[in-house]
Design goal:
With about 290 residues, the chain is mainly α. It is built from 13 helices and no strands. The chain has a single domain, classed as Up-down Bundle (Growth Hormone, Chain: A), CATH 1.20.1250.20.
């Protein structure tokens, strides 16, 4: 993601990040069922050989087409922790963690939720609605970020829509034909969120963009694991599966508050350090007097 953003430049950074996320969402939505269909005809070994072939094509593309970029040496673990401890990075990663807990965590329990909330047996249609929304959201969000130039505002709107989609799920499940709407919105916002999040992190730490983006990715997948675990604990405690979206929606609201209060529009690390130096210079003290 950091490489794509660097190659694209600031004006097309959102579209570059969206293309990366689009590949991930398409792999989840289309790759999984296609892989299952292929496995029925050529076996699972044949499917994995196809994946190996696609990987070889990708490696060839990197070797032949990707320009050489100067990369900073990987920082030690202590430096990574220091980067994460800075307020913009920590707050953005925290929002991504919460989004992972809520979006991918709830997705783990889609089947019991549908059965309990609407008496729906089977998840194929719901998975397609959620997944197609995810593909559309991850591909379109880049243009929105680039055109507006305001990733902070985009994250605010996306989190608000993600919260509303979760809260509407139990109500919509009672009328199957309405259920597709919050499912599509949930998938679109859940996948779209990380593009403006990465955009903000690169702006906050342009000197360590790869590390900041990688920390954000770690937060997303840690959140998905925690969400699955917490969902199981919540159900074991006696919460009805139909009520799970209320819990995740409330947690998204917490993430929205965290975003509004602690993130704001981050300034680059260089700008912050320069501002700090200026505030301590004798000239600035004299000017203040």
């Amino acid at each position: 993601a950091a490489t794509a953003a660097s190659l694209a430049g600031e004006e097309r950074r959102g579209r570059a990040l969206a293309l990366v996320m689009g590949g991930m969402s398409i792999g989840t939505v289309i790759g999984v069922p296609v892989g299952v269909l292929l496995a029925d005809h050529v076996g699972w070994r044949g499917t994995l050989w196809l994946i190996t072939g696609l990987g070889a094509v990708a490696i060839a593309g990197i070797v032949l087409a990707l320009p050489r970029l100067e990369a900073a040496p990987p920082p030690p673990l202590r430096e990574r922790a220091r980067i994460l401890a800075r307020r913009p990075v920590a707050a953005i990663a925290g929002v991504s963690l919460i989004a992972g807990v809520t979006s991918l965590g709830l997705y783990t329990y889609l089947a019991p939720f549908l059965a309990d909330a609407g008496g729906i047996d089977g998840t194929l249609g719901a998975m397609w609605a959620w997944g197609l929304g995810g593909v559309a959201g991850s591909l379109l969000i880049g243009r929105i970020v680039d055109r507006t130039g305001r990733p902070y505002a985009v994250v605010t709107v996306v989190l608000l829509l993600l919260c509303l989609s979760h809260l509407l799920l139990p109500v919509a499940a009672r009328a199957t034909w309405v259920l597709a709407v919050p499912l599509v919105v949930w998938g679109a916002t859940g996948w779209a969120l990380q593009v403006p999040q990465q955009h903000q992190l690169i702006a906050a730490r342009p000197d360590q963009a790869p590390v900041a983006v990688s920390l954000n990715s770690s937060a997303v997948y840690l959140g998905s694991a925690l969400g699955s675990a917490l969902g199981g604990v919540t159900l074991a405690a006696g919460v009805a599966p139909a009520d799970l979206p209320y819990w995740t929606g409330a947690l998204v609201a917490v993430g929205l508050v965290l975003h509004l209060v602690l993130v704001r529009m981050p300034r680059s690390a260089d700008a912050e350090e320069e501002a700090g130096r200026n505030a301590r210079t004798p000239e600035s003290v004299t000017a203040g007097e």
